[in-house]
Amino acid sequence: MSIDKFRFVSPGVQVAEIDQSRRTRPSAEPGPLIIGRFQRGPTMRPVKVDSLQELSEIFGDPITGRESGDVSRNGNFSAPSYAAFAANAWLANQGGATIMRLVGKESENATEGSGEAGWNTTTSASGQGGAWGLWIVPSGTSKEMTGTLGAIFYCKQNVGVILSGTLGTSNNAGQASTTYIKSTDGNFKAIIMSGSDASSSAQTAKETKSFNFDPQSRQFIRKVFNTTPHLTNANVTPTADLESYWLGETFEDNVIQLAADQLSGTDYFAFTAPLISASAHYSDHTIEAQPAKSGWVIAQDTSTDYAAYNPANMQKLFRFVSLEEAEWTQRNLKISIRNVRLPNENSDANKYGSFDVQIRKIGDSDAAVEPVESFTGLNLNPASPNYIAARIGDQYAEWSDTEKRYRYFGAHPNLSKYFRVEMASAVDEGSITEELVPFGFFGLPKPASVSVEGDGTAGDGDKAFILEQSSSAFVVDGVNLGARGTGALKTSGTMSNITASFEWPAPKLVGSSSAGYLSDPTDRYFGIDLSRQGNNQFDQSLHDLFKARGGGLSTENWDTTGDMEYSQHFSLDDVSGALNPSIPETGFIYKAGSRADGKSWTKISGAAELISAGYDKFTMPVYGGFDGMDIQEMEPLVNNTLVSGKTKENSYEKNTLMRAIDTVADPELVDMNLLVMPGIWERGITDHMINTCERRRDAMAIIDIEHAYTPRHESAEPSESGRNGVSSGNKVSTAVNKVRQQGYNSSYAACYYPWVQVRAPISGMPTWAPPSVVALGAMSYGQATQAVWFAPAGFTRGGLSEGRGGLPVVGVSQRLSSKERDSLYENNINPIAQFPAEGIVIFGQKTLQATPSALDRINVRRLMIYIKKRISRIAATLLFEPNVSATWARFTSQVAPFLDSIKTGFGLEDFKVVLDSSTTTADLIDRNTMYAKIYVKPTKAVEFIAIDFIVTNQGASFDD
Hints:
- The protein is of the alpha+beta class.
- The protein folds into 3 domains: 306 residues, 3-Layer(aba) Sandwich (Rossmann fold); 192 residues, no CATH class; 217 residues, no CATH class.
- Helix content is 19%, strand content 24%.
- The chain has 21 helices and 47 strands.
- The strands form 12 sheets. Strands 4, 5, 6, 7, 8, 9, 10, 11, 12, 26 and 29 form an 11-stranded mixed sheet that branches.
């Protein structure tokens, strides 16, 4: 815990406990570059980590594929994160690894309809399929009611969702879409309908379920409907388990809150309708990976014209942007501004106010704050070392497909592990008034509300993905259950006289500092209220509310132009005095519009008095992050038809993998000596890995190959169950033939066979992993215990049962015979063998070089990479020195002892350094060139042992 995470106001002692007992193994060597999926952390850029502890803090723990649960709400953890396993395997024995976390990125020239990142569900011309909204309207004392979006279903083509029950206020039973269904107890019944043609009578009920919005009920909507998107994907789900829909977002807290605010009886009305607005379909989530953001933080009102006060008009100061382009940040973190202090008018040193930024766990409470990062004493002075951008960082990068590199922007390096700040131009230019301090924020943008009158006619129904559909009817058994013209909401009886306003869900704000049973009301953070309606537990539905939105409403377009509006504008300027003025300790309250009404504390007593009273803090969320992946895939970056045979233009998956390799192609930008992308064996990707290493000449690729194992996420057949991923195509002869056909001939790559079962870090759960994971771990072990030039194979350095692979290995997907090992090794595939007594061991160390030479062995290739890197660094120190014999002697005097130490350590049999006038001739001197020749004889490893046992007669003499 950093010292700035403590809050010292008055003298006292604060104590924290920090576990640093995990081993840290710093390394001066560059180590491997490991590319793949991780739980969290910065995305699509290389990040160096030096220990298991740092890996866990930044990128989280490995995913085994069994953590998913509610995939739609909690994120897709349906497939193992092999790269995280590889990172743990390396760092278990050796410090220093570079990590690149992958998210979905499409090509700048992506093919429309096939090359975009993200996901979509097909919608037919009639409006079936796609996204279906479930709208809830509690009954009120008048015919003017407010409804909210309660849930979103995502359906495959020709599938829709209708409700069944009592129609409107009549006693007639029925089932329909776009038709009010009445409930007297908050329970509803939904039918998943399917048919090949929405305009025909060939509609069938695939599934009928009763549900409600009470999280404690057994019929809670998320407990009864499918929330696993990949169950709709026939490529990874057996036919018997295939679903035609999944339940996406649900907003149960908004439904409960709406009922609590309005309900006079117990009746609810509900209807379903496709979420379509003109040509935009809400099911369209074809969005590149993007970061989560907070709303703009705004300053206090310094005007004396309080009656004209509107927080939307206050000066924007800054906002926070997550370093990751995904959803982990918005699911796990929130941001608090605290200790807001106005400037000291009598001090030249404090012309600007100050404040703290606190990054907190999203589920903590104000009674027990759990910070993960804190930055104290910040200000808005661009010339100050405590300027918020200088202390937190404001740098970001943009990728160019044309140049195949990043361009970096921002003046201050990012010091936070989670966020950068985006400054308003007026603040960064120093043109704001010095008295301004953070005082509030803009809320989430949302689609505008829609009013529906009488039978459902709504002139603005196309503005909010509400009620505008195609002109076709939804037909069941030949009965028209709801014409779907613009705004056509079917009603019956007295319901035809209603006026209802339908609103998109929005988060709550803290209304009173005395709520929550705090011992001191001033401990309350105003702003966002993340608790459930009626108690202090965290509201899980906020995860859905903070998601990136479909239909063109993604974060980058979240503004209030057109049909969008902000859910709220919060400011401390709208905080009023105590509930009971005679008892100030009962706490202050927040009510929008208080300052304009002349009732807020800042209007009556001023901002300084509000801060002095202890109300100097507020909390805000971040939202809109998206990983750009297809949620309908168990593992989005797979080797099957999504990648194989595709181009970067028509497959965002392939573009993502290729771009990751392009990012590290320049050795001057990224230092590495190994390159691994565990679990990826598609030919185009592995060839690109090998070619990149060959061009760099300072790294070796460890690749995986086909026909070794079929993980669960690659097939609809559960091949892991009972057969360990072995199918007719997964056998040694098939793998050997494939490698032979591909014609590899490179000493800068190596591969292994078969897959292994490891125990996951932390959980210990058995997980099948590609062999590149433990091969990397074995190289780490050998480098840490002996040297990089010792063969990472055999029982001493390749004994996987003994933990040499960095992770406990408990099984192999195929137990190889001696003939199979011979076949693999003859074709430069390193076998992983299992012996009855000795256990599991890496039993080969060949590179993929077909041409016989010393470089067809891994230990020699890694030795040469090591030598070239070290001697290149020595040579770099001599650049721009005089090209004379004294400089040559300096080079030789440094290189020779270095090579001699390797010789002593059994890496070289001998060497020779030549740098004199015979190499650096007068012609080369005229061309400003120094030329040296270094001859080396690498030490070969023992791979074959021949022993003759000779049986002799009794009279033979052993002295001869």
